Every structure is written in C-alpha cells, then in structure tokens.
Amino acid sequence: MLTSLIVLIVIVLILALMYNSLIAKKNQVENIFASVDTVLKKRYDLIPNLVASVSKYMEHEKSLLEKVTKLRAEANKPNLSDKDKIALDAKVTSALGSIMVAVENYPELKANENVMHLQHTLHEVEEQISASRRAYNQAVTDYNNAIEMVPTNFMASLMNYKRKEVFEIPENERKNVDIKKLFN
C-alpha cells in the first residue's frame, strides 16, 4: 500500500513538473513575442516620419512609399495573429530595405540631416528587432521541442498545444549579393 502511494505521488509529481514546464515555455514564447511586437511597433512609428522626409525627393519611387505606408497600416490593425505579424514584418523589412537603397540614388536626400537621423534610428531599431527575433526563435524552438519530444508531447497534446512559427529570412534575402551589379 505504501509503495503504491509513493509511486502515485511520484507520477503526480512528474506530471506536475511536465505541465509546469510546458506552461513556462508557452509563456516565455508569448513574453518574447510581446518584446518583438514592441520593437516592431517602434519601427512602424518611424515609418510616417521616414516617408514624409523622403517623399518630396523621391517622386519616382512613389509606389514604393505607398507600399510601405499600406504595410504600416496593415500592421497597425488590431487582432492580427502572430503568423500575420511575422509575415508583415518580412514585407516591411523588404520594403524599407528598398527605400534605403533608393535613397542612395538621391545625393541631396542622403545629405539631409533629418533623413540621416531617421536612417540611424531605423538602423538601431532594426538591430533591436534582429536581437528580439533571435530570442523569440530560441524560445519557440524550446517550446516546439517540448511539445514534440517524449514524454511532454503527450501532455502537450492533451493541452492542445500546437507548433509555433519562427521568424524566417524572406526568400529574396537568402540570395547571394551579386557584387558585379553593385558596381555597374
């Protein structure tokens, strides 16, 4: 009888530890995603200033500026899923990169103090986003491992936990840079 009671206590203790571990990993993912979201919001707040500063110089890139403005508006919609936020982040990153490349074609714009300040601030925010993405991806990897590995996968299945997505590099940014094109 005593042995059965001890075995039961050990099993309950193991189940409680697995449950708490899964809850802790899920909360860690949510906490770090909130940090990513905060930095993304900071970047989205910079976009109107950037667009306003460069729009009078960049008449030929009007469609690019409109695209960035539209993406920012989409990102500020309430109730976006984490998956949608990750997808929008990739699009905004690409569009902002295009603007920064286009700025290089306008010497007056490159020398503008406001644009230089915005570029510097945007660069800092991009570095913060990068660090936040790395932390988020590590937390998601830990979480995904926990919900897929034995024995926690059984409890995760009972708790209806699903895999979470990580931030990934857009396909167009995976290509090697053609140095010859840069000098032509």
From TrEMBL:
Entry keywords, A to Z: Membrane, Transmembrane, Transmembrane helix
GO cellular component: membrane
Keyword Cell membrane: no
SUPFAM superfamilies xref list: LemA-like (SSF140478)
The organism's place on the tree of life at top rank: Bacteria
Subcellular localization(s) per the UniProt record: Membrane
Pfam family, one: LemA
Main location: membrane
Signal peptide region: none
Topology of the protein relative to the lipid bilayer: Single-pass membrane protein
UniProt record similarity statement: Belongs to the LemA family.
Protein's UniProt name: LemA family protein
